[in-house]
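Notes, Module 5: Reading structure tokens.

Key idea: the token line is not a picture. It is a compressed description, and you learn to read it the same way you learned to read a sequence, by spotting repeated patterns. We will look at two proteins. The first is printed below with its tokens.
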Amino acid sequence: MEPSSVAHPHYDRLIAAARALPPLRVAVVHPADEASLQAALESARLGLIAPVLVGPRARIETAAASLGASLEGLRIVDVPHSHAAADAAVALALRGEVDALMKGSLHTDELMAAVVRREGGLRTSRRISHCFVMDVPGHAQPLIISDAAINIAPTLEEKVDIVQNAIDLAHALQMPGVRVALLSAMETVNPKVQSTLDAAALCKMADRGQITGALLDGPLAMDNAINAEAARIKGIVSPVAGRANVLIVPDLDAGNMLAKSLSFLAGAYAAGIVLGTRVPVILTSRADSQAARLASCAVAAMLAKAGREGLIKAVG
């Protein structure tokens, strides 16, 4: 049984804010099973998205029949298989016919291969990165965690874009006071631990205006990044320590384990989004709750709004 919505008030507020916006035009890529199609149809019912279903028509219609759902009035782009669906969805985005992409029942690698293609893909001048927007029961604010799905072992140069992407997302979600913790296993700089060196360099880059829009601190261990008492005990004096709402992990392994630990041990919901692309890419998992899928659409809608209003610096 999923936790009640009472345990996830941050998602409730996010979805409510997105419902006040015009529906986002979303290419749903290969919604050929019940879970992915249901997520798209429910998001459309709530007014979050106006879906374009991209995939094999027969399989989409079979999934709809299994759900007892109607596809009347929905545009279906009929293609033979998942690879073709990814290519067609990217083409729709490039032509300006959709504002976002949403992963259906295909592997993330298949979708991202079409997105990151140098010719005909959705790359920008920014490094592409992934963020989870997490609603952790009992935690006073949502947490953004990056990068848990795309960048395996990012270099310092790549982390600059990962951090800036996450900050831009926080502003799009109208999070007050963006505070970025650069995570490591320790809170002191150790020349033998590369993540501590990267964290120190990123903080200085923020001081010099190379990263903007947030307060940064690091290296910080997880406990003193989010728990004020842990920071106090360790004598860390910082406007970020104990109050971080953006967590930047050293590598994909750390991010993936952190996010899934919060999901499966703490009952957190995780909405996944890809940034640094021409349009947001909504990444969902087969294990996602319906609320997390809806929240992912809401995150994309808020990003698109921020882009229209010029709140996110152009990265084309």
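Here is the second protein, with the sequence above and the tokens below, as before.
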Amino acid sequence: MILVTGATGHLGSATIDFLLKKMPSSQIVGLARDEQKAAGLQAKGVAVRLGSYDDPASLAKAMQGIEKMLLIAGTDEERRVQQHQNVLDAAQRARVGFIAYTSRTLKDRATLANQLMVGHFETEDAIKESGLAYSLFRNGLYMDAIPQFAGPNVFDTGITLPAGLGRVPFALRREMGEAIANVLAADSAAKPVYQLTGSASYSFADVAQVLTELSGKQVKYTPAEVSAFAQGLKGRGLPDVIVGRIIGFMTDIKNGQEDAVSPDLEQLLGRKPASLHEGLKALYKL
């Protein structure tokens, strides 16, 4: 039995869809907080167990009979590490044989600008110390996030971000879910660490160039100054804490924290991951 947490989220549901192609639905369990949101999983024959990372009792029930589990990182960045520890504790007590975790491909935890990302490394440490067999999926940035980074009017305004010419090996979230499912479904031993990235890294100047080619409209990338960019975000009503997170994210890209290309995704898929051109064409329906 394989348990996937965050089962109604984008990555969780994608992973389950690919698991369903490899094994009977009776062997797949989804952990969800909202039964209504999980109705689609139940319609596919996937068992749904209700629970949350903040509720140890529900986690204990969810772990019963589970042999492998995928812990998808929680979205509450302030409480993330404690929530993940709750899941680990429940898995240990239930004698789960193997745990996988969706971490991040960041080069150096000591020099991160976005300190909230340190929680991924702290979770990795806890998993390594748990005594459980494990795999860490260090995921690159989702290509699916580019429309959010670029903004809704990208073909009119271009892209303005304080990311310099920092490069990112963007990959589609769905392909990451497929790769994770391949590891979970395999009988062979998994590696301790997988870095799930695209086959090449790209700057936002590259993103702008590809959008220009696909749309026929000139899309320009302008590296922004941090102070002006921050003022613009505040002018849109974003609170200081959110502004700080966005700036930290972009600073890490600028400093090369994200620029680590790995062959792992290609090897797990058995094909090259979608290129920037292929991915943006699909995401923007061009």
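Summary for the second protein:
- The beta strands are 2-4, 28-32, 47-50, 68-71, 98-104, 133-139, 159-161, 193-196, 221-223.
- The chain has a mean pLDDT of 95.
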